[in-house]
Structures are given as structure tokens and as C-alpha cells.
Design goal:
By secondary structure, this protein is mainly α. Among the domains are: 48 residues, Orthogonal Bundle (Arc Repressor Mutant, subunit A); 44 residues, no CATH class; 59 residues. It contains 15 helices and no strands.
């Protein structure tokens, strides 16, 4: 009986001793921690010393190594060459863009002759001789003869002062009176007989044309002297005669109607 108890006690002590060896006590843990902290401090100091030595050696290597940017001289760069090339390229681009007006090969279009240019103008509308000459004069070259060209165009019936005068009269007759249209025709240095004939035609239809213009603008007889003066000045500015205006407005067209102050409108 006692022998069994002793065996059990010895086994219990063995287990406890094994547990103590496997799981250290609190005091042992504290002693190990303090010893480990001292070792870590020494290791940290050694590491810091190694890091300082490494940085020092790195800075020495950087000073001794070749720096391509530090060795470059800003004054020795080819900046002027680059600007020169840019200027040359800009010049070539502007030359290609503008070109020469007389260079038909570069433009890709055939050069237009003076007669071709004249026919282009005449294909759009009628021109008088003096008006067409003014249009062509900036394009005349040394080998061109402008007067001979105009004579040839008249001989070929491309150019006609009569057709021009009739065309202008028809375009203007619906809005203007005889004096206004004849005055415009005189600026084209037309023949006197032609002007007299066209003036007669315009005066024969003056009253009817003035009535159409008046109806479109006003449509009713003036109710006051100020309104009458306004209608008289409008028709007179369009080139209609005083006689036609007086008949149209049902009274005598006095000079005072044309000279009345604009404040009366």
C-alpha cells in the first residue's frame, strides 16, 4: 500500500519537473527578457554603425563616380543649331503655304490668260467697256494689250455697252427714277445718243414706276404736312421728278417739301 503511494508521488514529481522544464517560470522569463534586451541593444548599435558606414561609403562613391549632367556645359549645347533649323523649317512651311501667284506649276492650276479672265467676268453679268477695263487692269502683263483685247471682245459681241445699259436700266427701274438711273449710266462713259434714248424710255414710264414704289413704302396719301414732306423726300431721293411726285401726291410739290426739317417727321 505505501509502496504504491510512493510510486504515485514520484511519478507526480517527475511530471511536474518535466512541466517546469518545458514551461519556464516567471522569474526565468524575466531574466531571459532582460538578457535578450541587452543583446538586442548591442545588435541595434552594431546595425546603426554598419548603416552609417554604408552611407559614408556610398557618398564617397557618388563623388568619385562620373555625372553626365554635371560634366555637360550649358554654353556648349547646340541650341543655336536647333533654333536655326526651326527657322528654316518655318520658312519652308510659309513658302509652301503662300507660294507664288505667278507660279502655275506649284499651284497645280493653269495660269488664267487675260482674255480668259475677261470672259469669266462677262459670263456672270454684263459689263461696260470702262468697267471691264478697270477689272482687268491689275492683271495686265507686259505682253498684254488691254485696248486690243477690249476691241476684240466687242467685235466678237462678248462686250456691249448697249446691253450693259439696258441690263442696268431693267435692274434699277423697279426702284429708282429716271434721273438716278441716267446719272449712274453717265459714270460708265456711255455714248450720248444711247443715254438720251434710255432717258426717254425711263421718263415715259416714270409715273407708273413711282406709284409702285410709293404704294410699297407708304400706301396712303399723307394726312399732314410733315407726312407729305417725308413722302416727297423719299421719292425725290429715289430719283423721281418733282412733277411726277406732285401728281402722285395730289398737289403741287413745293421746294419747301424737299427742304423741310427732318424733325417734322
Amino acid at each position: 500500500m505505501n509502496v504504491g503511494i510512493d510510486v504515485s508521488i514520484s511519478r507526480a514529481e517527475t511530471v511536474m519537473n518535466q512541466s517546469r522544464s518545458r514551461f519556464p517560470t516567471r522569474g526565468k522569463v524575466a531574466r531571459e527578457a532582460s538578457r535578450g534586451g541587452a543583446d538586442d541593444g548591442e545588435a541595434g548599435a552594431d546595425f546603426d554603425a554598419d548603416a552609417d558606414a554604408s552611407r559614408q561609403s556610398g557618398s564617397n562613391r557618388n563623388r568619385d563616380s562620373w555625372d553626365p549632367f554635371a560634366s555637360a556645359d550649358p554654353q556648349s549645347t547646340s541650341g543655336s543649331d536647333s533654333y536655326t533649323r526651326s527657322s528654316e523649317q518655318t520658312g519652308r512651311r510659309s513658302k509652301r503655304k503662300t507660294g507664288s501667284a505667278d507660279d502655275s506649276f506649284d499651284s497645280g492650276k493653269p495660269k488664267l490668260s487675260l482674255k480668259g479672265r475677261a470672259l469669266g467676268y462677262l459670263s456672270r453679268r454684263e459689263y461696260s467697256r470702262i468697267e471691264l477695263a478697270g477689272k482687268l487692269r491689275p492683271y495686265v502683263e507686259e505682253s498684254d494689250n488691254l485696248d486690243a483685247l477690249l476691241d476684240a471682245l466687242e467685235l466678237e459681241a462678248w462686250l456691249s455697252d448697249t446691253r450693259f445699259a439696258e441690263s442696268l436700266m431693267h435692274r434699277r427701274s423697279g426702284r429708282f427714277g429716271a434721273s438716278r438711273i441716267v446719272g449712274e449710266l453717265k459714270r460708265h462713259a456711255l455714248d450720248g445718243d444711247l443715254l438720251a434714248e434710255l432717258g426717254t424710255q425711263l421718263r415715259d414710264t416714270e409715273a407708273a414706276r413711282a406709284k409702285l414704289v410709293w404704294q410699297k413704302k407708304f400706301g396712303a396719301l399723307p394726312a399732314s404736312s410733315a407726312e407729305r414732306a417725308k413722302q416727297v423726300r423719299f421719292l425725290a431721293a429715289r430719283g423721281f421728278s418733282h412733277t411726277v411726285i406732285a401728281r402722285l401726291l395730289g398737289g403741287r410739290a413745293d421746294e419747301a417739301d424737299f427742304l423741310a426739317d427732318d424733325e417734322a417727321d
